[in-house]
Design brief:
This protein is α+β, with helices and mostly antiparallel strands and 166 residues long. It has helices at residues 13-19, 23-27, 63-68, 133-164; strands at residues 2-9, 38-44, 48-56, 75-83, 88-95, 102-113, 116-127. It has a single domain (2-164), classed as START domain (Alpha-D-Glucose-1,6-Bisphosphate, Chain A, domain 4). The chain is globular, with a radius of gyration of 16 Å.
């Protein structure tokens, strides 16, 4: 299922891209139905960088959906890779076990605006389970959208707070 989201930030694209791979920000970011993330890897050379996180789903999951997604703990990996000179980033999300059953890929474009930056994310979410995949994709995309909006709002606040400090 195709998705597209937009978020505005009170800083330029380079600063937003840097914040998107700040492990300290994500270590304390509480999102609904998720554990605090475990930082799997982080690197940043000033122009390019990446951040990989492991999340555990802590919310309620329909028993049939849980069985289709492999049962047990629902763990997934999320990796963001940024390219500051190009004003772009990529996103990859997949189940840790059986990634073919649930994965998403997307690309971020950041554009300078009069008051900061506009981040556009476009990509695809795939539930690779015959017959129920499209319905599951719609349900999952709702939660994904909510968490992206909350993450963006918290990131905008963190950027504004950092910008206000001497």
């Amino acid at each position: 299922m195709r998705f597209a989201f937009e978020h505005r930030f009170p800083a330029g694209p380079t600063q937003v891209l840097g914040a998107m791979i700040d492990p300290d920000f994500y270590r304390t970011l509480a999102l609904p139905d998720l554990s605090l993330p475990e930082v799997v890897s982080a690197r940043d050379d000033g122009e390019r960088g990446s951040l990989a996180l492991r999340y555990t789903f802590t919310g309620h999951l329909d028993p049939i959906a849980a069985a289709l997604l492999g049962g047990g703990e629902l763990l997934w990996l999320q990796e963001v890779t940024v390219d500051r000179p190009r004003g772009r980033a990529s996103l990859q999300v997949s189940l840790e076990r059986q990634p073919e059953r649930l994965h998403a890929e997307g690309g971020f474009r950041l554009e300078e605006t009069a008051d900061g930056a506009l981040r556009r994310l476009e990509g695809d979410l795939v539930v690779g389970v015959p017959l129920v995949g499209p319905r599951a994709e719609r349900l999952i995309l709702g939660g994904f959208s909510t968490r992206l909006d909350l993450e963006a709002a918290a990131l905008a606040t963190a950027i504004a707070t950092a910008t206000d400090q001497p």
